[in-house]
Amino acid sequence: MPRPGDGAPRAVTLLPGDGIGPLVTGAVEQVMEAMHAPVYFEKYDVHGDMTTVPAEVLESIRRNKVCLKGGLRTPVGGGVSSLNVQLRKELDLYASLVNCFNMVGVPTRHENVDIVVIRENTEGEYAGLEHEVVPGVVESLKVITKFCSERIAKYAFEYAYLNNRKKVTAVHKANIMKLADGLFLESCRNIATKYPGIKYNEIIVDNCCMQLVSKPEQFDVMVTPNLYGNLVANTAAGIAGGTGIMPGGNVGQGHAIFEQGASAGNVGTEKQVAQNKANPVALLLSSAMMLRHLQFPSFADRLETPSSGSTQEVTDAVIAALD
Amino acid sequence: MARRSLPLLRQLLRSPKPRESPPSAQSRRSVTYMPRPGDGAPRAVTLIPGDGIGPLVTAAVEQVMAAMRAPVFFEKYEVHGDMAAVPREVMESIRRNKVCIKGGLATPVGGGVSSLNVQLRKELDLYASLVYCFNLPGLPTRHENVDIVVIRENTEGEYAGLEHEVVPGVVESLKVITKFCSERIAKYAFEYAYLNNRKKVTAVHKANIMKLADGLFLESCREIATKYPGIKYDEIIVDNCCMQLVSKPEQFDVMVTPNLYGNLVANTAAGIAGGASFMPGGNVGQEHAIFEQGASAGNVGSRKLVEEKKANPVALLLSSAMMLRHLQFPSFADRLEMAVKRVVAEGRCRTMDLGGDATIQEVVEAIVAALH
Lengths: 323, 372
Description:
The structure is a homodimer.
Chain A: E1 10-15, H1 21-35, E2 39-43, H2 55-64, E3 66-69, H3 83-90, E4 95-101, E5 114-120, E6 130-134, E7 137-145, H4 146-162, E8 167-172, H5 178-193, E9 199-204, H6 205-214, E10 221-224, H7 226-240, E11 247-251, E12 256-260, H8 270-275, H9 281-293, H10 297-302, H11 311-321
Helix pairs in contact in A: 1-9, 1-11, 4-5, 6-7
């Protein structure tokens, strides 16, 4: 039973991004229009080789609180720091979520995959603190704090609680990085005691990778620090059918940015751009998550999964399947 | 002299004797070599049974070696993961023999004891860790055409072990990358590819985020690549790499990585090829070599595996075959590998990790019976 005024259209910041980004965000716009969904987009052009995210873009996201984006291509090597990471840090989007699951009609080698990877998004190996001690010797700092570890663990258990999930697995390498990952584990264990109804266990990250590719059905919700989360999410997305179809997003206390879940290939190749053959499913499913976030569940439900084809064909198929 | 050795050289180059990769299951070596007198003298090898299923699988190796009457004898030493340091006599033994074979050492999680596995590698400067992941006929997997060698830097990177608590609740962990170590691991990778007739080396990195550290690693790889124009070289970001591994593993050949990514990539590759308990590997440095189960996951095993004696010895047996080649005993290595592959192909190695019930003794006996 909606409250009066709930149907008022919401503004959402839209960042097409680089590579296949504009193609897939274009697909989302088309589908939203076809559904007459109560959202309208404020589009901004951001490219991975800009030095920082433009101030007007940040203001827009702060105002709208919700953003949908394509991939931003980060140059490899020295120079520009990643805009994806910048966005997450500025808005303190401390949790990155990727939902990897077998979709009907997508052939995979692994069955029974239903994994949610929740990854700490602001610290760890991505602190960006590196320096060259002497020529030819570089130190890179990995920072782990109790504060960030606790809040990501809390988010993971809360997610499991709200979504009727049975188990949370912490991924770590505390046998080698005893203090850093040890602190992460301690925080997870503390939070676990507050959720007695949810099972909690721990797994070392190398064993985790192997278990993911041999018995993925044993995993439910996984909570990880930054780097392992990146790798585990991409592996899980790969076994479930590919990162082109897995939804996800980044969320913080005040804001949320939805994008293709796992980061591999979210900018795509030139061939994909030239032939218009990018896969919009991941972003479409993420936009469904966004609709739920905005409290429009029935619109979210109406979005369905099409099979493969060119971007336009897929979009048309989705639109056709909407009713 | 050159004219006489040219045809021999040509033959060798055409069908190189690979050090690490096993020959096809059915072919017999057609070119025998002429040993020097005294080559058959038994060599001493340090043996560390280790923890958990370690003693079971190393015992399997001892049994098979004895059955083959291989010219090796083992100097056994007890080392456990919860010791503070590797005992000095063990280090001396390895330094003397130059070759060691070991089971897994269980490293306690959390503060306190530092990993003995890592200690061994650092003390002996075993800077390259090698895992060979390939589809074994008879081993059911979801992925075909897997033939990947993961070469991982073994001494620095995230495993520098330099951590400290800045203030309570804030920890810094240092990841150290140096040009020296990056260059030598890249050199080892290309040399390996060259000697084993491999076509491509892929560097795995995350230099879009860790620009200086992984940037330095990449630079070193690129420099070394120019010295091997016959071998293709490319680079892949580690998250994309993980996804490609599980969707199209056939694109990878030799992979060179820093320490942490190498650990994860090796275990993932081992997993898709059939499981870490089948894949051989070892750690090698300028002077010494330690052979063990390739990828580290599960090399200590669970209590159930130990009690019911159902550990899988294939990884360590294949690693001991690598060791025999390293010691210049190729025909023994060939016999061992063929026997192991025959047993796996005939499905007589259905240990617990394959969902079966065989005990390790049954598997070893099958392998011994398959030796000619």
